[in-house]
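We examine the record.
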Amino acid sequence: MVLPLPRLRWIALLLFCLVFFASLASSAERRKHETREKLFVIAEGLEHKGQLKALAGAASFRMEFDSPGNAFTFSGEFTKAQREALSRQGARFAPVEEVHPVVRPERVGHLRSAARPAAAGRPYCGDGRCSGREDSASCPSDCGAGNGDPPARPCLPQDQEEYQTLFSNGEVPSRAGSGVRLFVIDTGTTVGHPDLDVSECRDVTGSKVRRGCDDENGHGTHTTGSAAANAGADGAGLVGAAPGATLGVIKICGTACFADALVRGIEEAVKKRADVISLSFVASDTEPLRNAVQYAVGKGVLFFAAAGNAGPQANSIAYPAAYPETIAVGMLGPDRMLSPISSRGLDDGDDGRIGERELELVGGGFVVESTWTDGCYKVLSGTSMATPAVAGFAAANWQGDAASTRAWLAAVADDQDGSERAPEIDPSTRGWDAASGYGLPRTSAGTDGGGAAAVSTSPNAADPGQEIAISVSGFADAPYRLGVSSPSGGWTWGEFVTDGAGDDEVRLTPWRDPGVWLVSIDFGGGRQSFDAAWASFRQF
């Protein structure tokens, strides 16, 4: 029997469709197996190590980690078939996600003074005056006994002791932190910056740990300066919280920052005998990250981590700051009050110990000037900025071991009572709350400028775009710092000098941010002094 031609064509078309769709299904199945996913692999029992590596395949293997106990952990990119083979050997998985620094963009208003501006810059070697930290050895051109000037700087910081933590009176001793190994885990740093003396510099972004830690971002250069800038050979640069500490930097970021590099960075800092670790990144809670933090703390490391910029919601604290082993650091605003963007923790009811997702300390996080990749300085804000300064403060006041130093920090902290709008830090109070932890650690009570300063605003209520006049009085011919913060956490500031009668008037044109704006002034100690006076105005 011969089939009619039209029927043959239909049969051929049907066969073609069957083959085509079968091919598509096969291709999809292959792609499903070949799609690679970046993962941590955790397996119990070191006897599986060689077998697991073989199952993972050399091309998929990226990093191996020193996990606590007998868990073998590594990371890589694995196909579905590899994941299934590893699962049959009892392996567990965790995602390798991006991790992020906790810094926020700046929003600055416009200030101008009716009186004299403050003197520009700071004393520096070569200005013809023997001042500041200079002596005949560090600056012979200004202080005698020398042959010529040192190399000129391209720029100077606006405030040498900008780290603004912990608002202790007086200068930071140049050897503060001596003998303590302080490691910053970040995007790297600018080793050639005149204010940074980096003893250990490692890059863990590849499959092998490499020497070098060049910063392609700037975030790490900023945090290392806050932690341990040493003013440079001429004494004219920035002074961090622990200028005498042995500074180590671990670079965990290339074009992006990933959790496996963070875990490797923590382990590398421990191998380099870190006493203190400062980490200004947030990440997802995973078993390898938790293991790495516990590994470091178990080795005697005092571990500081940024709480995050997700406030003021309760329980907004991020990992790894949320681990009880770390010291979670929140931040104050430029008015020395708790910042609304600083992440908050939980309260487990036991104020005598820090539990999971509880905040521990706060530091200065707004208007922080620190070192930058161009050899100069930059202002940034965030819990990223507060964390290295508090970590540096701990290194500068090391009590012999991590546990003793952690207890000391809580004991010297001034309570913030969890309010964004408390009028002042009360040095007579001690306590813990979910928003600010134990508060702001300080080595001495700040100064209020004698109580004679005053500040007022006119008008007391204004429309957006309307100019506000801020009147300042007290301390004739006195330099002062004026800070203004908006309801949503924006800021602006300026440094001025009162006239012979002790008066000044500063004009501010606020951006649109309805609510109560706060104004504060400091006298005598620049950005390290306490508020001499404060006022407020409302924007409709």
Notes: The first helix runs from residue 5 to 34. The chain has a mean pLDDT of 79.
